[in-house]
Write a structure and sequence with these properties.
- By secondary structure, the chain is of the alpha/beta class.
- The chain contains 15 helices and ten strands.
- The strands form two sheets. A six-stranded mixed β-sheet has the order 1-2-3-5-7-10, sandwiched between helices. It has a four-stranded mixed β-sheet with strand order 4-6-8-9.
- Strand 1 and strand 2 form a beta hairpin.
- Helix 1 packs parallel to helix 3, helix 5 crosses helix 6 and helix 6 packs across helix 9.
- The N terminus is likely disordered.
């Protein structure tokens, strides 16, 4: 086990080299590894160093504590919204896009090691990796539209590229959290392995010594959800007027959509629809261009405050 070259301490991110694999560990367990500007900055420094290190043949990104990454730091959003300084949120998101672009474009294989909750930008970070491996206790979700925002770290672009537009809309519009096994079944992740085998599997994948099993054919329920969200407009879903033909699965999905922010839903719908027509960089720019609009909304601030109070309570 060889530590990276000496640098200033990176308190929020740990790194080591184990048998030619650079292991990056997000180290903010008390905040469920939620992402803020300091975490993004330290991750970028760490990742760039390992990507350039000739000792490193592949990279694994994981985290300490119960969660992988439980989303962005809502306190950071609320502080800057209260100060009417949305520009800092834009800068943070641009830096996040730069980090995920570095991960995606890395010539070395990058593997996400997901042992717990991956929510919001946790899913988005995982999708920027070349492979995603999780244990059965992990879960995945994109809850942003319930908070008055949209997945702004690439979620509206990488999710449809991973699972198709219909299932991407299902995940983003409902904010539903799904199990690791269900994430594998829809193609969101590559492999589910027991926790005790997670380190070995991710390191083997990083070194191209492991082949993931292909997911099964989509179930009847998944095909129904996919077609329903492909054929339904978000305004009809939110209003509860989308035709479910008596299918209780679809009716429950419509009920979930009805609790989300209509403004965030409309933007997310537009971005997912345009993902098929645009290059990834062009699609990602859409997310950046509308940040001021969405974070200036009183509904967004109210939803974020309410969620934070509920979580603390």
């Amino acid at each position: 086990m060889t530590p990276p070259a000496a640098h200033a301490p990176l308190t929020l991110v740990k790194a080591e080299i184990v048998d030619a694999v650079g292991v990056v560990t997000i180290n903010r367990p008390g905040a469920l590894n939620s992402i803020n500007p300091a975490v993004v900055h330290q991750l970028q420094q760490t990742f760039d160093r390992l990507a350039a290190d000739p000792q490193v043949e592949g990279i694994v990104i994981g985290a300490e504590g119960k969660a992988f990454v439980a989303g962005a730091d809502l306190d950071f959003f609320l502080r800057n919204m209260a100060a009417s300084d949305i520009s800092r949120i834009v800068q943070f998101t641009v830096a996040g896009h730069r980090l995920l672009d570095s991960i995606e474009r890395c010539p070395k294989r990058v593997v996400a090691r997901v042992h717990g909750a991956a929510l919001g930008c946790g899913v988005e970070m995982a999708l920027a990796c070349h492979h995603v491996v999780a244990c059965p206790a992990a879960c995945f979700g994109l809850p942003e539209t319930g908070l008055g925002i949209y997945p702004g770290f690439g979620g509206t672009q990488r999710t449809p590229r991973a699972v198709g537009a219909g299932l991407a809309k299902w995940l983003i519009f409902t904010g539903k959290t799904i199990s690791a096994v269900d994430a594998w079944k829809i193609g969101l992740i590559d492999e589910v392995v027991p926790l005790e085998k997670l380190d070995a599997a991710t390191r083997a994948l990083a070194l191209n010594r492991y082949e993931s099993a292909a997911p099964p054919e989509k179930s009847t329920d998944l095909r129904a959800l996919e077609q329903f969200f492909l054929s339904s407009r978000v305004d009809d879903l939110w209003a509860g007027t989308a035709e479910t033909h008596g299918n209780p699965l679809l009716a429950r999905a419509v009920k979930l959509v009805g609790s989300k922010s209509p403004a965030a839903l409309r933007l997310a719908e537009r971005f997912v629809d345009e993902a098929a027509q645009r290059t990834l960089p062009d699609g990602l720019r859409l997310e950046i261009e509308h940040l001021v609009e969405i974070f200036s909304s009183p509904d967004t601030q109210q939803r974020l405050r309410s969620f934070r109070a509920k979580r603390l309570g």
